[in-house]
Design goal:
Blueprint lengths: L2 E5 L2 E3 L5 E8 L8 E6 L6 E6 L6 E3 L7 E6 L4 E6 L8 E7 L11 E5 L2
Parallel strand pairs: 2-10
Antiparallel strand pairs: 1-3, 3-8, 4-5, 4-9, 5-6, 7-8, 9-10
């Protein structure tokens, strides 16, 4: 069964860090471009970051550049998003999927709440 499971979210104060994980099962992410997207409360889904299948190129939404780092471990079938210097506007449910087209069923996401 092809599945994506996101984890690592939580409630943190501004300036804190979190590391999100995306565990893929039922298929290998090796060679597959992957992405993180998020859905802020009451808003639509927005793209956050993407990484090529071999990890050679990464791309970021302007508002997260310099704060977020996407990475992958193909051997472990895992995708990560290291988020530093978190801001209240980063509050959202975060999801992973393939890129540029989200070809897999969405996971449950992981909630990130940044609040003082």
């Amino acid at each position: 069964q092809v599945q994506l499971v996101e984890s690592g979210g939580g409630l943190v104060r501004p300036g804190a860090s979190l590391r999100l994980s995306c565990a893929a099962s039922g298929f290998s992410i090796s060679g597959i471009h992957m992405t993180w997207v998020r859905q802020p409360p009451g808003k639509g889904v927005e793209w956050v970051s993407s990484i090529l299948g071999d990890g050679s190129i990464t791309k970021y939404k302007d508002s997260v550049k310099g704060r977020f780092t996407i990475s992958r471990d193909n051997a472990k079938n895992m995708l990560y998003l290291q988020m530093n210097s978190l801001k209240p506007e980063d509050t959202a449910v975060y999801y992973c999927n393939t890129w540029p087209t989200e070809r897999l069923s969405w996971g449950q996401g992981t909630q990130v709440t940044v609040s003082s």
